[in-house]
Amino acid sequence: MTYAGLAAIFLALSAVLLAVAVVRRRPGAAWWAATGLTAAALFVLTVVFDSLMIAADLFRYGEGAEPAFLLWKAPVEDLAWPLAAVLALPALWLLLSKEEDR
User: What are its GO biological-process terms (predicted)?
Assistant: First the structure.
């Protein structure tokens, strides 16, 4: 299984979980804004720190495994993990919290 294939599985599961949570709990605009800002912050942090680690030569790609699309030095596939987290964790919070806790 490829790295992108594994990421696609996690993204699909996270998206289904988010869809279920949104349909059941109907979050408001503030929830969507907070989730969007969290996603943006995680994307920026991922690109910056992945790029710094690659620039510091803490890891490298094998021959023929060079990523097709880069954001600075970070492969775009690395954004799948923070995206999966930003989809799944707020969805779980919606599903598991009581109405007055939200």
Answer: carotenoid biosynthetic process
